[in-house]
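LAB NOTEBOOK - FOLDING QUEUE
OPERATOR: T.R.
BATCH SIZE: 2
PURPOSE: Compare the predicted structure-token outputs for two unrelated chains run back to back under identical settings.
PRIORITY: normal
REVIEWER: second-year student, initials M.K.

ITEM 1
FIELD SEQUENCE / FIELD STRUCTURE:
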Amino acid sequence: MNFSADTMKASALALGFDLVGIVRAVPSPRLDAYLRWIDAQMHGTMGYMARPDRVARRRDLDVILPGVQSLVVVGLHYGASIPAAILGDPTRGRIAAYAWGVDYHDWIAPRLSALAGMLTDGAHKVYVDTGAILERSHAQAAGLGFIGKNTMLIHPRAGSQFFLGVVLTTAEFDEYDAPMRETMCGSCTRCLNACPTDAFPAPHVLDARRCISYLTIEHKDAIDPELRPRMGNWVFGCDVCQDVCPFQRFALGASVEALRPVDLDRAAPPLIDLLALDDEGFRARFAGSPLERIGRDRLVRNACIAAGNSRASVFISALSALTHDASALVCDHAAWGVARIAGAT
């Protein structure tokens, strides 16, 4: 039995998704590039990216779901219009736009499951960037966008600020989508040139070890002192390589209210507030948001760097107190922040 692609797409849109494409379940055409990236150790401390069982799943989707025939790939816009003066205020900690609202996993996953449930025959599995598949590559194959030089999936009429979700299914469809062009960047190198930490050794190649998003979120240990001055006021993620992209002028912003910030402080909280957080205060403020996953210590670590980069003496007292914090990670970065403001670094 072949299911109707039009019916599946209409159902996805009715559930609140903004983009949807359907593609046959074949290995990613960018698999070799991923393997080269792993071999070059550019995944940093994200050891799960190179685990043999994860690599096997990316090589063969049947390892994930035996008999898989199709992938239904959905997209959901995020982001909102926030004054640049707020986001760039050095006394505020900047949060990447995708984390301004509720945790997107909590919004997307149940709706993906509902979408999969409409396929009455066969087996299904849903992922919201939690599975060992190359979502962006499969999304490009399904016509949702092209791969930019910043490695992001970019829709030519919607920019790159959208989440991806995937339904793997043993069902087959009556029609499949054609891939979008592999890239539409032309000679533009704005994203590569704008990266504060020079995280792109070549177009379409991201060295996670130098990426601000990786450093502030995935990296659990001390951040390289050489990179700290380049991180500006980012405390969770980074949007620089997306913001400078010419296609980003077409970004539509979040279509779901829950993904928008409740106030300006959710997009760029005052650093003095972040420096004062204890575990209880962190949980009270960020429960249910993407920031919850990094915990208090890493967020305060990041805030210490941002406070140091502000060069504002107003943070000296808070940073000095944190040099005696119970977390050695926080102590180290607080001391660096004090030295940075004093002009010693």
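ITEM 2
FIELD SEQUENCE / FIELD STRUCTURE:
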Amino acid sequence: PRLRADLWTRRLDVVLDVPQPTPPEVMHEPMFADAFCVAASRRRRQLGRDAYLAAGHVAVSSRRQGPAMEDYLLAAQGVERRVVVRCRRYETALAIVAASDLLLTLPRQQVAHRAALPVRLFRSPVPIPPMQLRLYWHRQSDDDPAHRWIRDQVRRALAPRSRGIR
């Protein structure tokens, strides 16, 4: 409901978010999909399913409470992880992981340009579907030339992210 209202009132021109149910007046298109990986300190040499489930985890979310996006994807498979730290930025979460035994499950693109951090990346030992992001806008703005320009700028900015994703 808030997405529709924010786009209708033009409080927001576009929204980049995970797939969600939308009314017919909210237009959307897929932007990219990103595989999940697990970051751990460089001290960790391997990561299996049992170790993943037994470990403490850092969650990144803009919300103050509740499950993070990957928790929903894990729960759909009957898997629950133990989150012990919550923060809002991947940079902070990666720094915490580098200095601890905690794990961070995150989209691969979030670490692609942060190679300087002393973390080791693993494939997720629990299969997690790729994170999908979609671009949303209100139908009333669909034919507006300025609005089309904004959407094109978002597409161009995200285009490199869609290359090389498996």
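REVIEWER COMMENT (ITEM 2): The helical segments are 2-8, 49-54, 69-75, 90-98, 109-112, 145-162.
FOLLOW-UP: none requested
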